[in-house]
Design goal:
single chain, about 160 residues, mainly alpha
Length: about 160
């Protein structure tokens, strides 16, 4: 019996210093019993399959984004064309509209540059010049509005 080896010990080692062999853990689970800490083994991912799926997904997403950008670009261009037509029609109709639009844009830009200067200490336009031009834009806008009113009342007087 001394010559028989115990199956729990590796061959060629004496029982005093031998380590037990690792055997797969086997157990039975009764229905309704939850095993804490047990995780089923994860399947090995197939890299080539994953790569092809990922590539097709990205390609489809890129194509969809390209199409959406193209549609939005065309829509924006159409809106710009419509706005441009409106401005040009207003200018052709009356130079007073042009002066009013120019003064409104100038005042908006100058007010923006002053706000940036006082909030962030970034000088887009010299503040003294910006204040002077704001006053000038206000005067020109008032003159254009007065001219527009006088033209409107003159045309009403002629028609009446």
């Amino acid at each position: 019996m001394a010559e028989e080896t115990d199956p729990e010990y590796k061959e060629g080692q004496s029982p005093a210093i031998a380590t037990p062999r690792r055997t797969p853990f086997r157990f039975t689970v009764r229905p309704g019993v939850r095993i804490v800490g047990y995780r089923p083994p994860k399947p090995e991912p197939d890299y080539a399959e994953y790569k092809t799926i990922l590539a097709t997904t990205f390609a489809a997403a890129v194509e969809e984004i390209k199409l959406e950008v193209k549609v939005q670009h065309e829509q924006t261009r159409e809106e710009v064309r419509a706005s441009r037509r409106k401005v040009l029609d207003a200018i052709k109709e009356s130079p007073v509209e042009y002066v009013k639009i120019l003064c409104e844009f100038g005042a908006l830009f100058l007010a923006f540059s002053l706000a940036i200067h006082f909030i962030l200490k970034i000088e887009l336009v010299n503040p003294t010049f910006a204040v002077f031009m704001l006053i000038a834009c206000g005067v020109y806008w008032g003159m254009a509005r007065l001219k527009e009113r006088s033209d409107k009342s003159r045309s009403e007087n002629i028609q009446a």
